[in-house]
Amino acid sequence: MRQDDFILFQKQIKKYLNTGNYDTNLDVIKSLYKNLQERYRCEYIYKNNLFLKLISEYGLRVTSVLNELKIGSSKADLVLLNGSVRVYEIKTELDDFSKLSKQINDYQKFADEVSVVTDENSAKKLEIEYADSSIGIIILDAKHKIQIIKEAESNTSYFNFDTIFKILRKQEYIDLVTENFGFVPDVPNTQIFRTCYNLLADINIVDFQKQVLNKLKERKLSKPSLLRSSKTPRELKYICNSLDFNEQEYYKLYDFLKNKSVCTYHI
Q1: Residue 7 above 80 pLDDT?
Q2: What's the sign of the alpha-carbon dihedral 202, 204, 207, 208?
Q3: Which of 210, 193, 117, 198 is nearest to 159 (CA)?
């Protein structure tokens, strides 16, 4: 969409579908999505279904959903931010689970709650492994519904200052120093990181995590109203949130979806 290049889309569609059966690109995408849900539940299917569930339950007015947020040495698939931090790690039936323990350890250094989203068979093993922990277990069931098997519990005992601080962007940690201490450090640019780090390290870790949560919520979507709009197909909600489309990009998308499949020109 951003490169105005639909050649790859066209090639893949023509490879796997008889495009003569569809009137518009939206019809093609809906058919592809349905086929993936029924035959090949890849990570995108999990992410989109989970995202739809979260925005249905929490909305987007006071809640943010971040994608692929780096926490420690891991990247969280989805992070829900409202009054607390909830991390969702997705493990599909196609995935390797060998890194899951390390990922959970990283996420617990910042998140109030951590949940693993997986298939029904894998969930049975995870229920046993994490029975006595605060980790939540969620499934995408055979009917493509998100179901909670084990509720995540809030756990702040693993919070780690270094991990939490390094989630912040430069301007964000400078802002936190200003808000807490009333000044911007007057030091060379090469010393800003360490100076802010040392100052903020004195704040109670639970209070600091809440401040970082609020700062991350300021990373607002460009056009939340268009993301919520019925004109944005359910099948594409996650990717539109992840890429944070601007108004022009949304309207490019809408035009593309209305075009007869498969369009052979650039929008």
Answers
A1: no
A2: positive
A3: 210
Whether residue 102 is contained in a domain is answered as: yes
How many domains is the chain partitioned into structurally? 2
The enclosing domain of 83 has a CATH number of 3.40.1350.10
Asked whether residue 1 carries a pLDDT value surpassing 70, the answer given is: no
pLDDT at 23: 83
Mean pLDDT within 94-120: 97
151 residue type, one letter: E
Co-location of 154 and 47 in the same domain: yes
Measured between alpha carbons, how far is 38 from 162 in angstroms, rounded to an integer? 42
What is the structure's pLDDT at 62?
85
Would residue 144 count as lying in a domain? yes
Q: Which domain, by its residues, includes 100?
A: 41-158
The reply to whether 111 and 152 lie within a common domain is: yes
Segment (H or E) for 228? helix 224-228
Q: pTM for the full model?
A: 0.89
- Give the number of residues written for the chain: 267
